[in-house]
Amino acid sequence: MHKAAKDIKEQEAQKESLGEAPGVLAKRNIVQPVPWCPSPPADNADIDPSCDPDNPRKISYNDISKANALIHEEISETPLLRSKSCKQFEMEVYYKLEIFHQTGSFNERKAFYALSMLSEEQRSRGVITASLGNWALALAYYGQRLKIPVTVVLPSNSSIIYVGRCHELGAFVVSYGENLDEARGQAFIMLKKRGQVYINGYDHPHVIAASGSIGVEILRQLPQADVIMAPVGGGGLLAGVAAAVKHMKPEILVYGIESNKSRSFFKAMENDGPQKTAVTRGLATSLAVPIAGYNAYHTAKPLVDKLVLVDDDWIARAILHLAEEEKLVVEGAAAASLGAFMAIPDVLPELRRKSVVCILTGGNIETITLSRCLERAKAIEGRIIKLSVRVHTNDPHEHLRVLSMIANVGGNIINYLAEKAMPEEDEYDINYLKILCETKGIEHACTLKRVMERLFPNQCKFLEEPFSPIPICACFPRSEDFDEFCDPDNPRTITYDDAVNAQGRIRKYMPETPYTISHKQRDFAMNIYYKLETVQKTGR
Questions:
Q1: CB half-sphere exposure, 329, CA atoms < 13 A
Q2: Which residue in 40, 381, 397, 488 is deepest, having the highest Cβ count within 10 Å?
Q3: Integer distance in angstroms from the first to the last C-alpha of the chain?
Q4: Are 172 and 151 in contact (CB under 8 A)?
Q5: 95 in the same domain as 211
Q6: Per DSSP, what are the bridge partners of residue 413?
Q7: Spatial contact of 135 and 161, defined as CB atoms under 8 Å apart
Q8: H helices within 468-515, ranges in order?
Q9: Whole-angstrom distance, CA of residue 445 vs CA of residue 463
Q10: Beta-carbon neighbour count of residue 534 at 10 Å?
């Protein structure tokens, strides 16, 4: 018994000590807080050496000429089409059609040239890129043709069509992040492990030079062109085209057209340099670039004459116009340049009677998006209206009267649905007719609205009235279009003295306009007078 106890004590002595109890340690060794926590060393792994913010590179005409010569050995010159609506726009409008490439966009020029300029060692390692779709397709296509391994990182919300086509073209596809910035970060993480070459789809020098070949073609096809309108995302296309045409024809105007939902190039111009900008998804998804290219910005800044922001509603109208009038199907980014015309004369009145070229950059638009876009554009123009009519369920002829009246006014009923009302006080026998109606235009839509509201008072509700969106004004250069009397930063309040002073000056040239009493005072149960400004020479 004593021997067993002795053996146990010896075994315990041989065990490694766990040290002193935590309570004892806490009393003896007081933990001191770290007074300063140094920042971790900066990780420059995601800095692209070809797009260095500290050493941006300006693309020259010689760079573009070299790219143009090589591109024309592989890619045929794309057509320049005169618009069928020149009279409507009051100018000579031409479309540079980049929608007929194999992958549906001008990115094929960039992909072919960028891959062709790789060394044999770089080709063997392969390339990697982050893209919103079109650039990935083009790179995958020419990677397959030139037998260069391609990896593309697409945002997780990218169209399944882009993902599927890139797979078909032999690219290794990764879906990551909610936007291009997050996808780009993942691409650089993969770059460390794979050792591939990263090619920026809008800021690599070879990419910008290849984009400039479009400008060379335009002036060869239309030497008398006065203005070129280019969509703007990261700025590569704008920079390349501007560098080319300003060298060939210095007096030509170059306008950049950017979606107001992704205004990274606007912010770069405003802050004298690219900076990260919040972007939201819209019709021009290919332009949703969070930060303008450094090479693109420094190349384009001294050459671009004006930068214009357009709303999605104007882009939708441009897509509709191209589909109906020009018989061309394009994506939102491509229609952005034409979208600025939808606001004329409010925006860009200086383009009247000039020869203007719009670059239609691509035609990759999903059928669902296209159908919704066309419907939205028709609603903007007053050609589709939605209304709800309150009718009684115990009057079977009231439905017929509503539909017959719409038909009599000339409306075309696209969709019709009768919904039962939620049981509320005095509404147990009520139905609501939900009607989607097509009209000839804004005037016809307003006529239908007036008739329905008069014949069915307090029963009709137009869910989406026709309207005209407010155009987004040109933003650069400010010096030309800045109005000192309407300064948004220093608005002026008009006083009574200002009005009296104006009246004294006006009376020297215009007599006082009359007023008259309404003949319907008894019907309205009030005294009504009309101030007749309609007697002026111009009618108001």
A1: 10
A2: 381
A3: 122
A4: yes
A5: yes
A6: 437
A7: no
A8: 478-481, 496-506
A9: 13
A10: 9
Same domain, residue pair 222 and 165:
no
At residue 3, what are phi and psi to the nearest 5 degrees?
A: -65, -40
Q: Residue 226 in contact with residue 252, Cβ under 8 Å? A: yes
- Same domain, residue pair 391 and 272: no
User: Which domain, by its residues, includes 417?
Assistant: 384-464
Beta carbons within 10 angstroms of residue 523's beta carbon: 9
446 vs 455: CA distance, rounded Å: 14
DSSP three-state, residue 328? coil
**pTM tops 0.70:** yes
261 in the same domain as 113: no
Helix axis angle for 160-168 and 134-145, nearest 10°, is 10
* Cα–Cα distance measured from residue 300 to residue 215, given in angstroms and rounded to the nearest whole number: 13
How many folded domains does the chain comprise? 4
| CATH code for position 182 | 3.40.50.1100
Spell out the per-residue pLDDT of the chain, length 540, in tens: 455 555 555 555 555 554 555 454 444 433 333 333 333 334 445 667 788 888 889 999 999 999 999 999 999 899 999 998 888 888 899 999 999 898 999 999 999 999 999 999 999 999 999 998 899 999 999 999 999 999 999 998 888 888 889 989 998 998 888 888 888 888 888 888 888 889 998 999 999 999 999 999 999 999 999 999 999 998 999 999 999 999 999 999 999 999 888 889 988 988 888 888 888 888 888 898 989 999 999 999 999 999 988 888 889 999 999 999 888 999 999 999 898 887 666 678 888 889 999 999 999 998 888 998 998 888 888 888 888 888 877 777 888 888 888 888 888 888 888 777 665 556 667 788 888 888 888 888 888 888 888 888 888 888 765 544 444 445 555 444 445 567 665 677 888 877 877 877 777 777 777 765 665 566 667 777 767 675 465 656
Contact 240, 212 (CB under 8 A): yes
Q: Are residues 239 and 332 in the same domain?
A: yes
Domain of residue 442, CATH code: 3.30.70.260
Q: Which residues pair with 229 in a beta bridge?
A: 255, 358
Distance CA 466, CA 313 (A): 12
For residue 378, what are the contacts with CB-CB under 8 A and spacing of at least 6?
320, 384, 438
Taking the CA atoms of 360, 361, 362 and 368 in sequence, report the sign of the dihedral they define.
Answer: negative
User: Using CA atoms, how far apart are residues 263 and 344, in angstroms rounded to an integer?
Assistant: 21
Closest to 248 measured CA to CA, from 461, 93, 6, 61: 61
Determine the longest span between alpha carbons in the chain, in angstroms.
131
